[in-house]
Automatic annotation (TrEMBL):
It is found in: Membrane. Keywords: Membrane, Transmembrane, Transmembrane helix. It holds the Pfam family MatE. This is MATE family efflux transporter. It is a multi-pass membrane protein. Its main location: membrane. Belongs to the multi antimicrobial extrusion (MATE) (TC 2.A.66.1) family. The keyword Metal-binding does not apply. The chain crosses the membrane at residues 21-44, 50-73, 93-115, 135-158, 165-188, 194-215, 257-275, 281-300, 341-364, 384-401, 413-433, 439-457. It comes from Oceanobacter antarcticus.
Length: 474
């Protein structure tokens, strides 16, 4: 990618091409994640006891709460990488991300191993489900360091616009995970422990794949001596560790993203807990619906990631031009580029959301039997399918606008919108509709998704009208 301000702003067709070039690998790689969840659900859903599916649902939700609370490592790395003006700056961002991820993973992994078993009873599930969830988590926490390091790697490659690398990493990880799960459950008569063990092995395989790509990239730009040091001389890398002051930009943006991500995951955990309190069948039905929601969100995130990368790069060019040339015409041309990115990514997100809703509508009655043959669960899934059909149209706004926020470095805007939507919309509406049971729970969740988008609209207008005000300083 180019870092010079002399590069002219691309037109509408060129911008659309750049968006698709970044988005399609991200879509494919992201879709593999919930597809793996669907594979796990299908494997466990065909076992005679629904408690296994509920156990993995709760265990995976708590593991997600543990790790995705630190998903800011991905988003923060993407934002700082995209807004960097040189390859050296981008390399520094990755190094800082690793130096932040490694000690965090050690601390959080130990904390999770000690504390998560104490949290499981709060979910209100049956004893069989709780025991299975505890077994799952006792194994799954081993992969925390690999997950945190993967966040940094994925964010770095996305920020650089090299989204085919995350596609390869995630594809290898999730294919290995699905294959190992089937082997352990069907071939070795394991249950929740087999699913957890398969995930751990696959996570470290994915990390090794990502590090290999970084080594290949570094080998192309460094001298043979440096390449030798990269592979063999760990102490030299230790002496290059960043100071606390150098880590401040990474810590600042990630602190805000941490609050935002933790709030989102607490909403999901609360949603699952309320489903569990209504029985194993409601929990299992909501589990499958949420897994399909992840399929929706990860598909839409392909466009959002393109918005992150291209918005950050365009704003970096705008700021560099303003600093070096102070040319009003050049700044205006690059500002138009930001506006094109906003419009085209929004149209792409809406189009994809409509397509997903049409697919779920056409799926009809053949969708759910793919994931379970439980005769008591299937009618319940048919009853709540209407909520699945509307999810893409309701949810795409917040995913798209989050991408713009990350590209613009507006992490505080994301944090404030998430907190406000959760505390002032989701929780009060859930309390008011609690007598409606699961229907009230889904209604509250819909309102939460819409509120996230509404509370970011003011920022979006400012970004469109005054892009230069979000350009990084140089």
């Amino acid at each position: 990618m180019s870092f010079t301000s002399a590069v002219p702003a691309p037109g509408w067709a060129a911008t659309q091409g750049r968006i698709l070039a970044i988005a399609w690998p991200v879509m494919l790689s992201n879709i593999t994640v919930p597809l793996l969840g669907l594979v796990d659900s299908a494997i466990l859903g065909h076992l005679p006891d629904a408690a296994y599916l509920g156990a993995v649902s709760i265990g995976a939700q708590l593991f997600t709460l543990l790790c995705w609370s630190f998903g800011f490592l991905r988003m923060g790395t993407t934002a700082l990488t995209a807004r960097s003006c040189s390859a050296a700056e981008q390399t520094g961002v990755l190094g800082h991300a690793f130096w932040l991820a490694l000690p965090l993973s050690a601390i959080i992994g130990c904390a999770g191993w000690l504390l998560l078993p104490q949290v499981i009873p709060w979910m209100g599930a049956t004893q069989a489900v709780s025991d299975g969830a505890q077994l799952y988590l006792s194994i799954r926490v081993i992969s925390v360091p690999a997950v945190f390091a993967q966040y940094a790697l994925l964010g770095w490659f996305i920020g650089r616009g090299q989204t085919r690398v995350p596609l390869i990493i995630m594809t290898i990880t999730n294919l290995a995970n699905g294959g190992l799960d089937a082997l352990f459950v069907y071939g070795m008569d394991m249950t929740t422990d087999g699913v957890a063990l398969g995930s751990v092995i696959a996570d470290y395989l994915g990390l090794a794949t990502g590090l290999w790509f970084v080594w290949r990239l570094q080998a192309n730009v460094e001298t043979p001596a440096d390449q030798h040091n990269l592979i063999h001389t760990v102490l030299q890398r230790w002496h290059r560790r960043p100071s606390w002051q150098q880590l401040q930009p990474m810590i600042r943006i990630n602190r805000q993203l941490f609050v935002r991500t933790l709030t989102l995951l607490l909403v999901f955990a609360f949603f699952n807990a309320q489903g569990a309190r209504q029985g194993e069948l409601i929990l299992a039905a909501n589990s499958l619906m949420i897994t399909l929601l992840l399929l929706i969100s990860n598909a839409l995130d392909g466009i959002a990631h393109a918005a992150e990368s291209l918005t950050g790069q365009a704003l970096a060019q705008t700021g560099q031009t303003a600093h070096q040339r102070r040319s009003r015409d050049a700044i205006e041309r690059l500002s138009v580029n930001v506006q094109r990115i906003i419009i085209i990514t929004g149209v792409n997100s809406l189009t994809l959301a409509i397509l997903l809703s049409l697919i779920f509508t056409a799926a009809g009655n053949w969708l759910w039997p793919l994931f379970t043959n439980n005769p008591a669960l299937l009618p319940l899934l048919d009853e709540y399918q209407i909520w699945l059909i509307g999810l893409p149209l309701v949810g795409f706004w917040s995913y798209w606008l989050d991408g713009l926020c990350i590209g613009a470095g507006a992490a505080s805007t994301m944090r404030n919108a998430m907190l406000t939507a959760a505390l002032l919309v989701f929780m009060p509406l859930w309390w008011l509709t609690s007598e409606l049971g699961n229907t009230g729970l889904w209604l509250s969740f819909y309102a939460f998704l819409l509120a996230r988008a509404v509370f970011v609209m003011r920022f979006t207008r400012q970004l469109y009208c005054e892009p230069v005000s979000f350009a990084p300083e140089h």
